[in-house]
Structures are given as structure tokens and as C-alpha cells.
Amino acid sequence: MKKAWAVAVFASLIFLFPGVASAGTIGTFLMSGSWDYPFHSVANGGGGYANWSLNYSVSFDGSTLDPVNSWTEYEAGEYILGDYEAFCTQVFENIYPTPMEYALYTIDSGQLGDLELDVARYLAAAWIAENYGATQKAEAQLAMWEILEDGADQFNLSEGVFYAQEYDPGTTGMIFHEDAQAIYEAYTLANLSGYVPGASWVLAINSDGQNMIVQNPIPEPSTLLLFGFGLLGLVGARRMMK
Asked: Between helices 172-189 and 119-132, what is the axis angle to 10°?
């Protein structure tokens, strides 16, 4: 009986880790988006200004639509449920508050190339999310839009494909501009040659809606390792009770 219990524990660990460690396609999920203050007046492609949110989040319903990755529904469901921080990648594309089918991908140069996305721009966006997503989200969103629309090698919020309305000095809008510029300057000084993003942010793609960079809803291997140690502790406790 003890042996059977131990085998079950190790089998569960083997089952868990491959799904988390695999790169590329993570799975297809039902995801809904939401937005909140602050808003900012921005334009894209020569169009007129519109007030657009600088603060996005997404929710997963706890299920996966991809049977290949069905392990997530059972083992990671408690982590998927709830809200996660997110960044908009396409100015003026719609974000829907009702669940829509999204494919989640790791953010790496090979995967981005396979998806025919600009590698340099999206790696820069991933770096911004990792370093400023928790502290300066509005400014990070503004910087991300500028880089994704106009390129990772230049930054000008006053002109180009993407631009933002000028604000008076000292106003919140102008502070956002200045902080977004500072984020870009930090990015250029970071020397990201060979940069490989971590697993904390992933790319969510929907052909009918807004593509987004979102917090990874799947537990990282370190989290599952703690879970595994907990199972092993149960094995030890059972043996001591015998």
C-alpha cells in the first residue's frame, strides 16, 4: 500500500512538469478582458484622438479548449480562475468583456517568428511587462504601444504611427509621457542582446479581437515543485503513522 501511494505521487509529478516546462503553444483558453482608469488620449495611423484605457486585466474561466493541454483544467484550474494583469498590444482593437477563445503562447524569438510578429518589438514589450508591469502599469502601456507600433529602435510620442496628445507640464498626462520615455531609455540601456523573457508573461492571441500580453495563469515549475514536496511530505507522514 505504501509503495502504491508513492508511485501515485511520483506519477503525478511527472504528469505536472512536462506541461509547464514546454515552450511554444501553451493551450487554448476562454478569456475575457476588462479595462479601468486611467484613460489617455492617443491616436494611431493618422486618425483622430480617442481616450483609451492604460489599465487592462483579463479573467480565465478555469477551462481549456485544447485537449492536448487538458491537464491545466484539473491541475491548474485553481490558478487559472481569477483576474490577471494584462497589456493591450493593438491600439483600437476591441477587448471583449465576455469570454472568447484565446490561444496562449510563450514569448520567445522562435515563437514570435513562427507567428509572423516583429520579434524585436515584442521582446521589448515583454521586457517592459516584466520590469514595470507591477509598478508603473499605465506608463508601461504607453511605452509598449509606441514600441509595438513604431519600432523598438525609436521612441517619439508626438509623431509616427502611434502618438499621444500633448499635455501641459505637471499634469498627469504629461507625467505619463515622461515616465514612458524613461522606461524606453531604461530599455535601451539594458543591452537585451540574447534576451529571453521569463515565464511570468505570455502572449494571448485572438483573430477577432485584441491580442494581449498577460500574466501567465499556469503555475511555474517552482510552484508545482512546492506542491510536489507537499505530496512527498504526506508520504512521510503516512509512513510515520504506520
From this structure: 110
